[in-house]
Amino acid sequence: MNEHNAQQNSGELAKTFEPAGIEAKWYAHWESNGLFRPERPDAQPYTIVNPPPNVTGSLHIGHALDNTLQDVVIRYERLRGKDALWVVGTDHAGIATQMVVERQMEAKGDKRSNYTRDEFIGKVWEWKHESGGTITGQLRRLGCSMDWSREQFTMDPHFTKAVVKVFVDLHKQGLIYRDKRLVNWDPKLKTAISDLEVETRETQGGFWHFKYPLADGVTRDDGLDYIEVATTRPETMLADMCVAVHPEDSRYASVIGKDILQPLTGRRFKVVADEHADPELGSGAVKITPGHDFNDFEVGKRAGIKAADMLNMFDAEAKVVQTADGLVPAEFIGMDRFDARKLVVERMKEAGFLIPHVTTDKEGNEVSADFEPRTIQTPFGDRGGVVIEPWLTDQWYVDAETLAQPAIAAVKSGEIEIVPKTWEKTFFNWMENIQPWCVSRQLWWGHRIPAWYGSDGQCYVAETEEEAQAKAGASVTLSRDEDVLDTWFSSALWPFATLGWPEDHPPQHGEGDHAQHGGGGSPHAQPFGDNPLHHPAGGPPPRSGEDRSLLAKHYPNDLLISGFDILFFWDARMAMQGLHFMKEVPWKKLYLHGLVRAADGAKMSKSKGNVVDPLLLIDKYGADALRFFMCAMESQGRDVKMDERRVEGYRNFATKLWNAARFCQSNGITGSTSVAAPAATSAVNKWIIGEVVETVAALDQAMADLRFDAAANTVYHFVWDQFCDWYIELVKGNFDAETRAVAGWVLDQILVMLHPFMPFVTEELWHSLGKREGELIVAAWPDPQASVDPAAKREVEWLIALVSNLRTAKNELGIAPGAKLDAYLPDPSDQTRGIIEANPAAIERLARLNGIRFAAAPAGAAMQVGAGDANIVVPLEGVIDIAAEKARLEKALAVSQKETKSLEGRLGNPSFVEKAKPEAVEKARADHAMHAAEAERLAAALARLG
RNA sequence: GGGCGUAUAGCUCAGUGGUAGAGCACUAUGUUGACAUCGUAGGGGUCGCAAGUUCAAUCCUUGCUACGCCCA
Fold first, then answer.
1. Reduced to 3 states, what is the DSSP secondary structure of residue A30?
2. Most C-beta atoms within 10 A of its C-beta, which of A213, A299, A441, A751?
């Protein structure tokens, strides 16, 4: 603890809380003293892994939400004494990062192809080193207490090792395979992308109708010598391989199996029967381009066309190339896909094969157009932003369907709890319909696929080239697969690879031992059963022992917090890989939060220009205020709408706390040395201790429920409404030793409870209030070891009621709030007399009364104020007119009578008394008695006025 | 087309089977041993619409309307 003491503050607090300096000071102090992960070898572990942000990115408002929530949880658990580990790191973000570097090159008139692969990757690494610190620095500004000493990067050598092992193992198990099929091809980025990276957007397009003539003089039953087909993509005509009609469509029954002679290419192909053709839609016949359309691919396969034989008419940039049969007219070769579309239509029209789209205009005249306008669901690449082209290529696929089963089971069994629960349905819906996951990317930046090809075309998957060579034999020349893996393939390993897997792993079990998992009666379901595909990567982590590895101790993680937008991209894949390789769920709970939206509810985006920079908010209001805002607004299942005024409000809250502490400090109040509440004799002190007890309980409950809004509001209201508004006001002027001890203790409890939400201001105040053994960040969570004292609670609440009611009455009667008045209470109950006698100072200072005399008030104008059962008479001869006081009392009486009557009605209803819950009846009776008594008091008060 | 969500005070949002709360904004006001980034008091809501269940519905059920998101 040595040098920390130098940090301790002395001297008076400034009048206003100035966040900037305090934030910088404490963050550096915490980090340099290892306080984000104190040594707690025997403590219960608590683990969260941070969704790794893109290494070259910067902090946006969504990160601020996501990381605030995680930091609140990890600070809370750390304060509760756990071995709290928050794993942090960055993601190499394959496509995104490569795009950034390529854009930088373009800006300088340079391009990727001017470099070798190694040179280019070197440049990306340079950029990583240059900008990689931006976001981590910004996370520090937000106050995030991650374990930076173990900061990770998804392309660290140990991570690469994990990725390669996973790939090789899955391949051995048949869960990764190479396949030739249609992929979503991004012609701008020139890479395959997965289904998830495709965004479908509506575009305005057309629907063209063409005649496809039957060959060999064949005609349909109705005499026509052609089939009408319609398409939104005429250019694909250059690679058509059949026309499909529904098998039961009588219009075409006689021509099934006959040939079409495609007019533009002169290609001959068959009319096939396939249920994909919908007789209700258009002509009922569809042209089939198996190499360039997902549906057509399936039709083609059913028609007996092998993937390898499907015609391809595009290169990687979606420019027209010659098909294998050489039938594409020369004028199309090299043409962009959209230009080709126009030319195809033009040529077909010239040759008389275009069927015009005819409509009638307002005047009833026929209008003819080349095509029917249509809204088309068009796939776009989410990164490149251009229309995706289905393209026939060899890619690597993960058998996601197999891997998904244990993950589905884990959520079903409750091993993974998804919060809020409504997301379960979405999760199941996707997982149960999951498609093979295309994981290869035609990029340079990323984890290169550990596959080598021999000159014979044979593929060898191995962890190293040596191993591949050994498999292939020394005589074979190998070349490595050029492609890299989808970024999400590596980040899926985050919950265990960051903890040292595969090196940090228990000894391998012997052969044939693979059915053993979870030694010592693991309660977990064993979703792998005896599936021979599942060879565990090793045994389960040991369950006990002094030297449990980091992995054994912190896997499964306790909680994952992520935005719902990456539920499929990341969360689901972690669940799959974690269960497959670790035999246990990656985390016990998955908390999904929403998006942060702009003030008008719109999605924030750079293109809209409505992004709010969290760093600017931190500069303006302080990190504590921004964090508190995020928590207070985070109710489950709802997006957070940006509201800067609310951030401002929480900055004000920090200042309020600051000033309360300043006031305490100036009255000789110092930090407490005890976790347990000090002994108290006075009612106010007993009361506030009881309020702390209740607040801690409410806060713990909210945290257990992951209700960040409830947690934040609980502390907020305790600090402002209870501590500042009443406790401090009640004890002002009476700072005896007991009160100083209690006030100091309460303030400490506030600082601890508030610390997860507002770490900076609380740490600063913690040290301002006295010489401490250690920092607040590692202090002990409240454990008051006290209980609520009902008599003290009643007493203080009576005083609060008296003061509030007096203020209201004075305000309504136009009496100066500061006016000090006399008061009479002729016949107090013993309890009320006791309260009044015990609190002369509060009655004088807060109620602004010259005491309360237990005697009848002198005759004359007076206002009458209730508190509990007491009706206090305040003579106001010459100050008010009786009519005003009468009106005031009458208004109050009317309210009381209305309530009384309504409750009377309910209680008079026999079905209510018979059928309602006894508690409800009891409550109604109590409320009725209370309102009736109040009405009686007011009626008596009115009578006294005459 | 399928799925999910939302609709409560002027705004942003909590909430409960027993006729509703917060923050901000608004109105009035400035007295008390920190705080005007504050204090005090106040106004403001047939809880989207309709039907049903119930002794009782803002809350449960069904339908409708509007808006948003995801998947096809």
1. helix
2. A441
**pLDDT digit string, tens, across residues A864-882:** 898 888 899 998 877 777 7
Most confident of A135-144, A809-818, A854-863: A135-144
Residue A526 has pLDDT above 50, yes or no: no
Strand B proximity: list residues 640-659 of A with CB under 7 Å: 640-641, 643, 645-646, 649, 651-652, 655-656, 659
**Nearest partner of A292 among A360, A370, A234, judged by Cα:** A234
Residue A159: pLDDT over 80: yes
Strand B reaches within 7 A of the A25 CB? no
A459: tokens are: 């593929």
Distance CA A887, CA A233 (A): 80
Q: What is the ipTM for the molecules in this complex?
A: 0.95
Mean pLDDT of chain A: 87
Verify cis geometry, omega within 30 degrees of 0, for the bond prior to A502: yes
Residue A607 predicted with pLDDT over 70? yes
Cα–Cα dist A690/A701, whole Å:
17
Q: What angle do CA A813, A815, A820 make, to 5 degrees?
A: 135
pLDDT score, position A517: 35
Determine if strand B comes within 7 Å of the CB of A603. yes
Instruction: List strand B contacts in A 763-822 (CB < 7 A).
Output: 804, 807-808, 811-812, 816-818
Give the amino acid at A860.
Answer: G
> H-type helices in A718-758, by residue range?
729-731, 737-754
Residues in chain A: 946
| Cα angle: A129, vertex A131, A135; to 5 degrees | 120
Q: How far is the CA of A236 from the C1' of B36 (A)?
A: 72
Cα gap A89→A162, rounded to integer Å: 16
Q: Is the CB of A309 under 7 A from strand B?
A: no
pLDDT in tens, A259-299: 999 998 989 989 998 888 888 877 888 999 999 999 999 99
Spatial neighbors of A25 by CB under 8 A, at least 6 apart, are A7
Q: Of the CATH numbers 3.30.565.10, 3.90.740.10, 3.50.50.60, 3.40.190.10, which one belongs to the domain with range A204-377?
A: 3.90.740.10
CATH superfamily of A617-624+642-785: Isoleucyl-tRNA Synthetase; Domain 1 (1.10.730.10)
* pLDDT tens digits along A358-374: 888 888 888 888 888 88
List the one residue out of A276, A248, A242 whose CA is nearest residue A260.
A242
Distance CA A538, CA A511 (A): 10
Distance A637 CA to B49 C1' (A): 25
Q: What is the pLDDT of residues A45-101, one digit of tens each?
A: 999 999 999 888 888 899 999 999 999 999 999 999 999 999 999 999 888 888 888
Per-residue pLDDT tens over the stretch A377-404: 889 998 888 999 999 999 999 999 999 9
Distance of CA A24 to the CA centre of its chain: 27
Long-range contacts of residues A9-16, Cβ cutoff 8 Å, at least 24 apart? A9/A764, A9/A767, A9/A768, A12/A662, A12/A665, A12/A666, A13/A658, A13/A661, A13/A662, A13/A665, A13/A765, A13/A768, A15/A659, A15/A662, A16/A655, A16/A658
